[in-house]
Amino acid sequence: MCHATSDLESFQSSCYTDLNRPQSSKTAKIHVLRRRRNGGRLSNEAKERAKLRKMKKVMKMKNLKLYKENKTIIEENERLRKKALLLHQENKALFSQIIIQQVSQPPQYHN
Question: Which of 75, 62, 59 is nearest to 4 (CA)?
Fold first, then answer.
């Protein structure tokens, strides 16, 4: 019935593979050179990039947390769906037993 689980699993494997990826050496060298030119201070552009990298990491972590929460909700939903199906089947069986009892008893008339 629900295909969301497979979609979420494929989403998870593609999104969270580079969380702990080290910074490339070329990029690190550029930052060192820029810091030297600015007397050890980062330029506003570099600060913005650093802020964006930090925000991106925070958003990935929030996204991962929401993914896990959604997966838990989907699993709980499947469990409840199975339980509801069993209750529905039990209800049908009980209802059919009541019908059989009513049919087998002769009608009683009150005076």
Answer: 75
Separation between Cα atoms, residue 25 and residue 36, nearest integer Å: 17
37 and 43 in contact (C-beta within 8 Å)?
no
8, 6, 15, 7: which is closest to 60 by C-alpha?
Answer: 15
Q: How far apart are the first and last CA of the chain?
A: 55
Q: If we measure between CA atoms, which residue out of 19, 13, 10 comes closest to residue 59?
A: 19
CA neighbours within 13 Å on the CB side: how many for 111? 0
CA distance 23 to 53: 11
> Which residue has tokens 């593979």?
17
Distances (CA, A) of 34 to 43, 53, 63, 70: 8, 18, 33, 43
Portion of the chain with pLDDT greater than 70, in percent: 60
pTM over 0.90: no
Q: How far apart are CA 19 and CA 61, in angstroms?
A: 9
| CA 111 – CA 108 distance, rounded (Å) | 10
